[in-house]
Design goal:
The chain is α/β, with parallel strands linked by helices. It has helices at about 1-10, 15-20, 35, 60-75, 95-105, 120-130, 140-150, 155-165, 165-175, 180-190, 195-200, 205-220, 225-245, 255-265, 290-300; strands at about 40-45, 50, 80-85, 90-95, 110-115, 270-275, 280-285. The chain is about 55% helix and about 10% strand.
Amino acid sequence: MAKALKKQALGRGLSALLKDPTKDIQSVQDENADKVIGNIIELDINAIEVNPFQPRTNFSEESLNELATSIKQLGIIQPITVRKLDFNKYQLVSGERRFRASKLIGLETITAYVRIANDQESLEMALVENIQRQDLDPIEIALSYQRLIDEINLTQEQMSDRVGKKRSTITNYLRLLKLDPIIQTGMRDGFISMGHGRALIAVDDLSTQIDIYEQILAQKLSVRDTEDFIRNHKNKQDAQNNKSQNKGNTIPQHIESGIKEFSEYFGHKIDVKVSKNGKGKITIPFHSEEDFNRIKKLVQRDK
């Protein structure tokens, strides 16, 4: 199959055409452009440069060696995609792992799909192609989404159409970038999952995020355990805040004695807050429209 693809990719006379600078193709309107642009052809591997817009920066040496072995045995099953820059000069758009693995085993040529694209289109193609891969970590995907927003000026709705993902999914990935960089690195290295990261986003303070992250690692907490841990932590924080507020909200004795009478009169527990200057606020809760009208009648009774 690989040999058949190679034979088909070369085409009759195409090799000579690519090596003739007088017949260089710069646009789809040029003579013989239909033989190169939009077609799968065999290119000199040294004529291809790596895409500087490539959003992926981590390439596992072990997986590259495995891919290289596969290519050595079976050839390139899926061609890489390049854009034409100049005569006999191309830039990688997608397929960097295949490109790197092919260079590892010393291939001189590689099958490639050729197209013409400007820098912005090249960046967008590289980003979208990477997002749709299955082996990216959550932070790599989030960074790719953020680059599409920052550099291509795509909205989340437009991104949803481009990559075929729900807007809520895109939002969830982008929110991961609010995590402390140490936690982001932990997610990239596989110490925690995206589920752990989403739970940690609920913690606003970055130092507290780190403390909980260390607890996750030390106790090997599952995502559900992490959610429970954070929920209990927030409940404790709320209780401490309320306790502090209550300490600073000392109610005078003459008001304290009247709260019980108010509560009995309205049929609800009445909340009273008093400031240091003696001013205060009375809160009367109600549970339904009917309950509200009942309280209203009680307030209006003495008018």
